[in-house]
Input
Amino acid sequence: MCHHYRLSILLLLFSLLLVNPLLYAGPKEDLVRYQGYFQKRFSNLSLDDLSNGLYNFDEGRREQWEAIMEFPPYEIAIEEGEELFNKPFGNGKRYADCFDNGGVAIAHTYPRFNAKTGKVQNISAVINECRVANGEKPLRYLKGEIVKLLTYMADTSRGKKIDIQVPDDPRALAAYEDGKRVYFTRRGVRDFACYHCHWEAAGQKIRGNVLSTAVGQVTHFPSYRSKWGAVGPIQRRYKGCMKNVGAVPLKAQSDAMNNLEYFHTHMSNGISMNAPGTRF
Amino acid sequence: MPVMKYNHASQLLFVFVLYISFIAVPVLADTSVAEGKKLALEYCVACHQFTGTNQAGSLGPPLLVMKSRFPDRKTIYNIIYDPAVAIKPHTMMPPFGRNKLINKAEINKIIDFLYSL
Amino acid sequence: MNKIIFCILFFFLLLVSTPGLSTPALSSSEANAVLKQAMSLHKQAIANEGGWRITGKFMKKAKKLLDKGDRRKALDVAIRAREFAELSIMQADMEKKSWSEPPYLK
Output
């Protein structure tokens, strides 16, 4: 009797092992694992709470942050961004013509997989594509005008849940998987991958800095950073972390960076957008 | 005073000892602990607390009573050289020796310092 | 007397032959050659998405030393830059093949 019981458990375990690769087959299953890790570890925090990043773990900084948020330093960028957004190009067309829903309340669905090119595009890429198609010069990435546009567009998505789609297209899945590779790759002389600091070490201190959780990080980007004295997009932040670990940062808007953004944004699916935000 | 008779070999030996002490003395003992501390403050505080740190990180365990916990120097040496081999493959501790951030002599100074804790 | 002189000579011979303590004449071309290798390896590492910033720092340092005419140090530093470049390429190759999620995410 007892023997049979054990045997059937073994069989059950064995069949689970066989099914496992199927359970972990794709982005949907990843999402459950990734968000589950933090939900288990920080059971006192909701998924939306996670988007408060390091302020979940550092009372002092949280107070300073809340004081700053009384007069958010990104307000001007939203206003200027809206003006730029609505200014017609030389040919009379507008940014709104290049996006779904006139570009309003769509930021939480980017980056997207573009079936025409087979590549991932973030909003910055679509903005420049739109400009070029309408006879305007592309803007430089990461700073200046493009960031103001992003800031305004993100603000129109505030409160919407992040919704990154990986469509049923092998190229989309490959881009997602490539982003995962970039994320879990050790780089720099100190041999760090992103996960070292933002998963197991989340909530702990590296030097004087408390570390944020990987899940929830994207929700407030573009974000105003005191260190930058300006609002900046997430790829600027990626470059900062890469530099900090001693790596030559990947090029902004390269396939590797875009795929990283795709993968990294996907893991926050279902969490409310709260962008633009502020950080030290 | 009896006259000592040196043979050629012992003279060579004497000179050799003189030579060794000439190049080795500055590296020994106290200075080694002090230099090891300097290195540890540069490379280890980001993650480890130990006596004399403030603003240290909390990612790795505090480096306390090292001599009794790690009586064998080689164990610590291997950890500092390449923790991905000595501790676990996914460790976040950098491979200071493997990536040539710190050389052998410097690792030994760090160990001298850790043994003083 | 002879022996004393011999001993003194022997002592200096040893000192001079100790690497790092001696400074034999070096042409700048040696350091330059190593620096060039370092640069091309560093470029290769960056193309592999695996460049290290420390390689660039050491290359700059080596160039400065060369400009100052300190060839011995320049060579040492250039060699370190080349080592970093080599290690960075190894890391990038290794990671491409064997990156993985940590066990706690499985």
Summary: The domain at 21-72+166-279 of chain A is CATH 1.10.760.10 (Cytochrome Bc1 Complex; Chain D, domain 2). Chain A touches chain B at residues 189-192, 196-197, 200-201, 204-208 (CB under 8 Å). Residues 10-19 of chain A have pLDDT under 50 and may be disordered. Residues 2-23 of chain A form the longest helix (22 residues).
